[in-house]
Amino acid sequence: MGQEQSTLDAGAAEIAEPQRGAAQPRVAGSVPHVLRWPHGGKTAYICGSFTHWQKVPMHWQQVGAAGEWVKMLDLTPGTHQYKFIIDGQWRHDHTASTVLDNLGNVNNCIQISATRDDGPPPAPSTGAAAGVGTPAGAAAAAAAGGGGAVPSGA
After folding, report:
1. pTM, whole model, 2 decimals?
2. Does any domain span residue 42?
């Protein structure tokens, strides 16, 4: 597809660790978490309350015939709202939890607890397939007001 990518052998059952990104140092008290866009696209960015709604590039991971956009982020405990920019268009993942922001935009939301509840942290990539924790339970946070404003038309 021509995207930034990490590839595995076609028969690999596990996904290699997504790149954390050099510009994002580990924040004390944060929890590593992988956010995914499994719906294709040629370019993908993630934006959210945790990036002050600034776009952060995602990385393409090819697994066999399928693939997805992924980004590992260190998120502080609490409720976060986020959205994707796919091929220049604001999008939310209809398969993940959503919430309306204070302007009526549909955003995805995730609740991060102080301790990982989705298994052990991702193992470092060794050239072979390495395990990745699945996203922590993305609980709907309809009562959570905050989050940043997202341009309408999403």
Report:
1. 0.61
2. yes
Compute the CA torsion angle 59, 62, 65, 68 (nearest 10 deg).
Answer: -30
Which pLDDT value is given to residue 127? 38
The verdict on residue 17 lying in a domain is: no
Residue 18 lies in a domain: no
Q: How confident is the model at residue 26 (pLDDT cuts 50, 70, 90)?
A: low
Q: Please report whether residue 5 resides in a domain.
A: no
pLDDT in tens, 38-53: 999 999 999 999 999 9
DSSP per-residue string spanning the chain: --SSEEE--TT--S-PPPP--TT-PPPTT-EEEEEEE-S--S-EEEEEGGGTT--EE-EEEEETTEEEEEEEEEE-SEEEEEEEEETTEEE--TTS-EEE-TTS-EEEEEEE-SS--SSSPPPPP-SS----PPPP-----TT---S----S--
Residues spanned by the domain of 55: 28-120+132-144
Residue 52: which CATH number?
A: 2.60.40.10
